[in-house]
Design goal:
Number of helices: 4
Structural class: mainly beta
Oligomer: single chain
Radius of gyration: 21 Å
Strand content: 35-45%
Mean pLDDT: 81
Strand order of the largest sheet: 1-10-3-4-5-6
Length: about 350
């Protein structure tokens, strides 16, 4: 069992949503552990290759209890995509073969207590298992406010090189220059940016950066991925457009596999200027390895940097009247009502 460290003193807030997706490969039982309070008290969701089932269960008093199960044929040693969604007391899990378009099996269960306020992580039982491409999403205020997180955990967290103040300084200057050239911030905001104190520290878990009272802390090694420190930060020569509006580093780029320091610094400076998290561009709450997220996204109507996500929450979204685990965002099309495009997962 391996637990995820999000850098919080306790678990997520009780009204938070937690989504975990992972690629798994096993010949036994493996999956995601959640609501973990100790080695003798936790819940889990995953696959049993021995029994050909997708299961949701809990472990208490030395006993494994299955709370919900769906039968399906599981090929031992094959890669499967496992998706877990937790909201309040509700748990939903879905499974499909890696690369498949549709989910092959789903299971759901309602527990008698909140499921997101304990620890969570990965679980293997009665055999070996491998995990890949772990993705974690949450709307918890600890990450929604002024922190940037890595979209995925690093395969080898010890491989990232330590960032120095000397390397950080020119990136901060270049980030301020980009904000200034955008025309989106006035002289007062630029002065706040210029007055921000940057420090480097070993932040916990997936945290890449955090803004607090005019001070920005940058993780020392990009959450274990390592930082790409651009020697020519005025251009994006190391990245190419991926067709969806994002800039990504090709495999032969020196930025490939690393976190882009310029993106992280621009993001935190945006918080210093008063912007909140958005679902795309420079204020996206997540940054993927090898991605440059410096795009300044405009509202279709006002022409201003979109801050729609600061004006609404999942708690007032009408889609939550339907089981939210069955919905997923397929695009962000900002309009005067701050609506998104959504599709149902079937």
């Amino acid at each position: 069992m391996s637990l995820v460290d999000l850098g919080l003193s306790g678990g997520l807030q009780a009204n938070s949503v937690l989504d975990v997706e992972v690629t798994v490969n096993t010949e036994a039982t493996t999956g995601i552990v959640f609501d973990y309070y100790g080695a003798d008290d936790f819940k889990y969701a995953g696959i049993s290759a021995d029994n050909n089932t997708l299961v949701i269960g809990h472990f208490i008093g030395g006993k494994w209890v299955v709370d919900a199960a769906t039968d399906l044929k599981i090929k031992a040693g094959a890669d499967y995509e496992l998706a877990l969604s937790l909201k309040g007391t509700t748990v939903d899990v879905a499974l499909k073969a890696e690369g498949a378009q549709n989910w092959q099996a789903m299971a759901g269960h309602v527990f008698n207590a909140v499921t997101v306020d304990g620890d969570f992580g990965l679980l293997a039982k009665d055999g070996m298992a491998s995990f890949d491409s772990v993705t974690i999403r949450t709307d918890d205020p600890a990450f929604r406010d002024a922190a940037l997180v890595a979209a995925t955990a690093a395969a080898d967290p010890s491989a990232g090189e330590a960032l120095s103040d000397e390397s950080l300084a020119p990136i901060v200057a270049a980030a301020i220059d980009r904000w200034s050239a955008s025309g989106l911030v006035d002289e007062v905001a630029l002065a706040r940016m210029a007055g921000v104190d940057f420090t480097i520290a070993d932040l916990d878990g997936l945290l890449l950066g955090r803004t607090d009272d005019g001070e920005v802390t940058i993780d020392i090694d990009g959450a274990g991925h390592g930082w790409f420190v651009d020697s020519t930060p005025a251009d994006d020569a190391e990245f190419v457009a991926d067709g969806s509006g994002s800039l990504v580093a090709p495999g032969d780029s020196e930025a490939a596999g690393n976190m882009d320091l310029l993106s992280a610094v621009m993001h935190e400076l945006g918080h210093a200027a008063g912007y909140q998290h958005d679902d795309q561009g420079v204020m996206d709450a997540e940054l993927a390895a090898g991605e440059r997220a410096t795009a300044l996204v405009f509202d279709d109507v006002s022409g201003e940097l979109s801050d729609a996500s600061a004006k609404r929450s999942w708690q007032n979204d009408p889609l939550l009247q339907i089981d939210p685990s069955k919905w997923y965002k397929v695009g962000a099309k900002w309009d005067h009502e701050a609506d998104d495009e959504w599709m149902i997962r079937i």
